[in-house]
Amino acid sequence: DTAVSQTPKYLVTQMGNDKSIKCEQNLGHDTMYWYKQDSKKFLKIMFSYNNKELIINETVPNRFSPKSPDKAHLNLHINSLELGDSAVYFCASSHSGTGGLRGYTFGSGTRLTVV
Amino acid sequence: KQEVTQIPAALSVPEGENLVLNCSFTDSAIYNLQWFRQDPGKGLTSLLLIQSSQREQTSGRLNASLDKSSGRSTLYIAASQPGDSATYLCARNNWGDQGAQKLVFGQGTRLTINP
């Protein structure tokens, strides 16, 4: 199936730990994103990568470090997890430029709970 | 700054009714606008994508319109069914201040269709 897939789906961890979320897309898109959905269900962009290059970095704490080994993968590493990091994290992808005319495709989300 | 606003925040209607969900945005220089559906605890499903040059798009019982000059989009759902119950998200795509496209979401309309 062509899709954006994220792992893990659920992640429960203690404060202070370091964790990673992985994302892969097989849609042939060249741009990938991380979005955060907070407790009020509001979705906000965190990062965007185009062909492995960081192109958007919203005001996100530097404990969050995205990494894109190739244009089909975008991982999110979080250091020193805090209670406020609890949220659902969505990966998405799209074509850049005129390809953006086809819209964005989202993964099913990773529910992170910090205890 | 709220760039995309959705009204109402919640809507409950009897099965079979036609209904309209509203979305307004502050920047008329959009690239395109996308409507998504989110079921509880699930990811985002793309419903309709309207390019900036288009006025409307239709898919089955769904029709989305776009009026750039007034900064508004509507999602019309005909003959509503209990399976339509979900949160509907409107998102505009345009060039951000970092020179890349980004999708900015409204806070959603939580729709409940009563049998």
Brief rundown of the structure:
With 115 residues, chain A is mostly beta strands. In chain A, 0% of the residues lie in helices and 55% in strands.
Can you describe what's shown?
The complex is a heterodimer of chains A (about 120) and B (about 120). Chain A is mainly β. Chain A is about 0% helix and about 55% strand. Chain A has no helices and eleven strands. In chain A, strands 2, 4, 5, 6, 9, 10 and 11 form a seven-stranded mixed beta sheet that branches. Chain A has a four-stranded antiparallel beta sheet with strand order 1-3-8-7, with no helix packed on it. In chain A, a hairpin with a 5-residue loop joins strand 4 (about 30-35) and strand 5. The N and C termini of chain A lie far apart (about 35 Å). The model of chain A has no long low-confidence stretch (mean pLDDT about 90). With about 120 residues, chain B is an all-beta fold. Helices cover about 0% and strands about 60% of the residues of chain B. Chain B has strands spanning about 5, 10-15, 20-25, 30-40, 45-50, 55-60, 60-65, 70-75, 85-95, 100-105, 110-115. In chain B, the strands form two sheets. In chain B, strands 2, 4, 5, 9, 10 and 11 form a six-stranded mixed beta sheet that branches. Chain B is globular. The termini of chain B are far apart. Classes of the chains: A mainly beta (about 120), B mainly beta (about 120).
